[in-house]
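Section 3.1 - Work completed
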Amino acid sequence: MRHIPGRAACDQILCTQMISTPSIPGNPLELERQVCFALAVASRTVIAVYRPILEPLNLTHPQYLVMLALWERSPRTVKDLSAALQLDPGTLSPLLKRLEAVGYVERQRDKTDERALAVTLTEAGQQLRDEALKIPFKVVEQLDMSFEELAQLNQVLHKVIAKATR
């Protein structure tokens, strides 16, 4: 091994820092231990569970999220929807166009603010809610988890989101 000037001092500082910081048992860089990896894989696999459930309703997962927000409150401005869904308006706009094309929503200028675009559920969009009520039960069945387990997971995920965005 080649001698590097000051290396002993660096090694001593590094060891001191490692001793004074909380240690993580095992390899902290192991892929399976990474929260980001688990979240990414869980997201992809859970969305894959939704895909065949949403297909008969002529919805993609992102469109389903838009519809959920509109079933909570309609009409909503694009700005409000964008904030609720944590989506950039440029990402939201094509979703709204497709939902409008299938007849689930209408977009028009907001009556209270001509600069804003309001999104309203159509009759077909409102009726779709009745079919959508079955979705959570189908997801629970597919995941073979209880509502309680999924509620706990949801609570922990919202805590992670809050801590990561503060």
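Second construct:
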Amino acid sequence: MIRLIKIIVSGSVQGVGFRFFTYQQAVKIGLVGYVKNLENGAVEIIAQGNNQQISQLILWLEHGGPRSARITQINMSELPPQENLTSFNVRY
């Protein structure tokens, strides 16, 4: 079953390589979607994949993500899957 999840990660997550490391992790897992900084200092992740892939990303985030980041909050919501997502990238 393909799932699309929107994740908002708060804390010290900008200016510490968070997007790059999230991109690497998502590609390694085989997810499609994107990661981008938000104006409020948080980071948004849109990730689409099967249950196992989504669970791997969530587990990685719950264990702190990249060492340089300090995650204080993770908010997640399910969205309808999108056929137009074909790769994972960093958005600016």
